[in-house]
Each structure stands twice: as structure tokens, then as C-alpha cells.
Here is the input.
Amino acid sequence: MSAVRPGAPGATRACPHCKATILATASVCPACRGHLRFDASAGADGERATSLLVEGQLRSDATGGAVEYTMVLVIRNERGEEVTRQVVGVGALEGSQVRSFSVAVETMAMPSGKNRRR
Ligand SMILES: [Zn+2]
Here is the structure.
């Protein structure tokens, strides 16, 4: 869990269904898509938007062999320092197999009174 105080932008909680760390303001878990009890005191009255979306496909170009892949997700701050690095998934492709990958960053504007951080 994060060190952000409850009610502040970026505050987190654990999804009761899958235990993923999600925003406290989320009404649907982005990991398991389970619906969550919405806590009005969390302050989520902004509009959610998908601010960044990257999608692509990978296919095996190896003839008669396989290609292994590793999907790595990195989040960096304004100084280029890594905030998070995760291996999202690994696997292998053979023959005509294809995998699609997509990364979405959802955002929600917070009321100005709740933008103060410690
Ligand atoms: Zn979940």
C-alpha cells in the first residue's frame, strides 16, 4: 500500500475480491473488474478518462521455432527515476500464434481541495 493518507489523491486500498492494490476512489477494480462498494468520503466525483492507450501485436517470426516474450511495465517520475517496474507476463509464441498487448492509463481529476500532498 502507498504512504498517501486516506482521502488524498493517490490513496490506495486492496480489492476485496483479488487483493490487487487499487485507487481508493475506484468503483470497479481494474484488475478483476469486480464492482466495489463506493465510499463517498473517498472523494471521487471527477470524471475518469483513458489518458494514454498503447496497443500492439506480436507474432512469431521464427520458422519452425518459438519466440519467448516478456512484457515489462515501467513507471518513471519527472526525473526519469523508476517508481514501479513489473513483469506483467511472460510466454512463448510458436507458428502462427499471436498475442495482443495493451497498456491503458486511466486518470480522474480530483477536486482542488484534495490536491494537497504531505
Ligand atoms: Zn479486484
